[in-house]
Amino acid sequence: MKNRFTKLAALFLAATMTISSTAVSYASEVVADEVQSAETTAFTEDANDAEVTDAVISTANTLKAEVNDLKTLTAGVDYAAEEGFFVADSEEDAKKVAKEYGAELQSYSHGVAVLDFNRDIADALTETADAQITSTVVEPNYIYHIDDINEEDLQSAVADAAVNTVTAKDSADVVTGDKNASKIDDEELTTNDPWLKASDEDAYKTYYQWFHSKIHSLKAHEVATGKGVTVAVLDTGINTSSVDFKGNIEADYTTRYKSYMGIDRQGHGSNCSGVIGAAKNNGTMGMGVAPDVNIYSVQISATGSIYGSDEVEAMKMAIEKGVNVVSMSFGGPGYSAEMQELCNQAADKGITLIAAAGNDATDTVSYPAGYNNVISVAATNRQDGLSSFSNFGSWVDIAAPGGEVDYDLRKYKDPICSVGYGVSTATSRMSGTSQATPQVAAVAALVYSANDKFLTTKTIDTSRSVASILLETTNNQTYTFEDHSVTGLVQADAAVNAAKNFTGSTTYTIVDPSGDYGVYMYGKLAKGGTLKLAIGDATGNTKGVKGVTKSATWTSSDPAVTVKNGVVKCSKGAVAGSKGYVTATIGNETVSYAFTIAEKVQNFGPIRYKRNAKGYVFSYKSSYSVAASSSTYYDLTDPYSLTGGRIFLTFNKTKNTIPGYYLASGGYKYDITIPKGQLKNCVLGSQTRNGDPRVVAFTKPGNYTVKYKLLDGSNKTFKLKITVK
After folding, report:
1. Would you call 431 a catalytic residue per the annotation?
2. Was domain 47-145 assigned CATH 3.30.70?
3. What pTM was computed for the model?
């Protein structure tokens, strides 16, 4: 998981995922003279107050942490000033919690309760925490954005954002790929949709769908077209009258937008849905990457602002619907524990989640793309560079075409063309990670469609396998803009062929150092690191197939990574961010492990830092306090659970400068230990497959040490010291 995050040097306030023919949004960098991460001090129980339970104390601590998070955000922009939400089993329960918070129950739908505090939420949460009267956590209603400005307003929007000096380059210094792949070859052109014709034809050049040739959609259609697969699109609704949707759509909505009935009045949702599933060979407009897919559109916005409560409600609706893929082209800085839990539930049910990385040209994590079990998508342009607006960083998983903006001419450059809103022939032209995201979602749909096993097996193994196929079959090409880059463009043809040949072995699995297993697995691999994999049976047991790890034939897709007898070694000169996979062949069956190469980590923990005339001074906090409780559990695999702070893994640190960093839960796994003498004072909720403590409750006061060893091949170890009061 790419966990709760505060930017080290700057905070970009804009969170749009689209730079469209109706909108462009930009952000300015804000650097504080002195910034220090907020720490949460745990409450201690008053021994004379029997009514204050462990759960109430834990809730109070969490509310205080939420209030600290709000200090870095802007009311009305990043969160609703007087709203909060939570998940309740019934409306009756929701009303009880509303009373505890002194709030009104604004709505209750699909288990999501929205409260109106009629006062500032930070004040309301602080008052409730101080009163220690509830065991239910209410989250701020974070706002995520799709800030659309029409093309005519682009010039003034750019000027207002003071980015006139930023130019999206076309020159060869940002072109790292196939410069001749700008249009589809004649032999590939097997559709009568006019937008797929050669881009130099005047009749079609404005709407030419150049992205299909980059990801090889037409070649993929020889294997799969998305038939039998359902993709949920959480967005501004859909144009139900469009000629490019042939009865394969269902329009739904969250309770906030009941009056809109799921009908798109903004255009963003229709564009994204069209990129996924617009009809093929109907002689009009363009086509979707998965033209035979079923689209379940859930309207979570009417104007471009999306509330966290609607995001959670829509995700619950998608899970209840039993969809295969969820596409989310929006984002913002707010982390929601409720949403993370739903992402986990979706993955457990075999659902693949795709989200936009963001358009702030920063490595700051955006949510929902930053959640665990979500594939985050960057954008590339037609010239095979990273789109100038695209977010980047180690937390980004994959890229897809998203178009470009020419800041000098104040207009779009090679936008993604699709269905528009309004009349049946409405069209739209948009650029952004919003448009890259539905392409990856559509390729995921093709993967499901290419192999019935993925449609019939609704377990975590399915979502893991689909994710691994998407990541393993990219072109592993690096896309660059200025001094940053993203590696790996989604490839539809390679993905469907891998899916078609997927055997779903019932004999063998690959077992990683954490004990997790599957036919397809994925994780981090540190530069210069050594990782030990093993072959297990269908249940991950390695003892029953002893010797197979050595007898299997192992291969690596990356020359910088070698593998022998399951021992994977990564060269120190390997390129961080690049992706690859190792494969083990046993007879006619194969299992594989997809990896993302990462920098070798130097330090771990919440960073406290100050800026002075010389630069930045850093320190790492490793000691924390929690309340003794037999009913309050902590998930040790997520360090945030223990610390309530922002946890970073840093690298390439030099004096007085900001180091590179990863999120502690951004796809990392750990070997976790607690000394036996201390562990006996804990209630063990669950264990990892290696037998390590995973979920624990600290029942007795005292000092505890939780030791983490990174399972990325570096074997770097860190300790968190916990004082239980």
Report:
1. no
2. yes
3. 0.77
